[in-house]
Give the backbone structure.
Amino acid sequence: EVGLACDHARLACNSIKGRGDVSYCVYDEMLREKLRKQQYVVDHIDEALEKEFVKVFYQPVMRVKTGKICGYEALVRWEDPNMGFLSPADFIETLEHFHLIHKVDEYVVEKVCKEYARLKKEGEPIVPTSVNLSRLDFELCDIYSVIENLRKKYDVPIEYLDLEITESALNENDRHLKEECVRFHESGYRLWLDDFGSGYSSLNVLTEFEFDVLKMDLVFLRNIDHNEKTKVLMSYIADGARRLGMEPLTEGVETEEHYEFLKSIDCERAQGFYFGKPQLMDETRAYTKGKGYEWESFEL
Ligand code: C2E
Ligand code: MG
Ligand code: MG
């Protein structure tokens, strides 16, 4: 039917909008399925948050020198009764596209605060947790007030909640984002630069923004085995981070060799499947306890 064919053609065109590397797209079964999934995400996110199908998983972050757990990263998952398990790749971008991502990020921060209150009540060891913020959080809501209100509601110390901002979100010319980062930083929040080295952002952002931790992207360790230059580069980045007042962290540690290498370049922190995959808090605690890891003491 011609009308329907035109609609499909438009959907196919929209799906490659903004991409310089493709010049045409055919509406096929794969695209249909992808769009169906996107629509599902948009239509069901509110319900998924309300019914708690959306879960927060925690991945340990290690202090390389001591081998102790010095923090966790909160990573979102969606366990849907109809669609099954959805990873961030299945919904984060869609929610950003439809300007709904702040709902998820607010939800994650609240869950992290609640988890803190629970662990404290149960007398469990506590280490700071970092949450991932989307660039759009800064536009779609007053993310500073949202986080401050939740933190106060659950009586969470500022030192417990670290904020990750991905490199690709940064733009030296984005005054609002810069001002909000300053606002967080001056209140005492620690800001982490996530996915460093994965994109094309200017190195100048390192001087324009105040970060406390610089997280080297997974791509570095993926390259290390077949490119000797990667090691040199990582060593320079770790050193440069320290000299700019940031603690270097490398993500994607999967092997003993990776870990040994990070020790050799004095990279302060490490995160990856080698130490533990993201899991629900109680599961990740049981898992790391089983491996004999201890927690760093959390001093205020
Ligand atoms: P990210 O913040 O860079 O998170 C690290 C990703 O690497 C996670 O994928 C984690 O599971 C994965 N990872 C950790 N260790 C290893 C390893 O040793 N090897 C490999 N191959 N992968 C490892 P995940 O959980 O699928 O998250 C993907 C991205 O989605 C995150 O990247 C982050 O940008 C975004 N994201 C996750 N949760 C949230 C959230 O609550 N809010 C927002 N806005 N974005 C989120
Ligand atoms: Mg992150
Ligand atoms: Mg990352």
Summary: The CA atoms of residues 82 and 224 lie 40 Å apart.
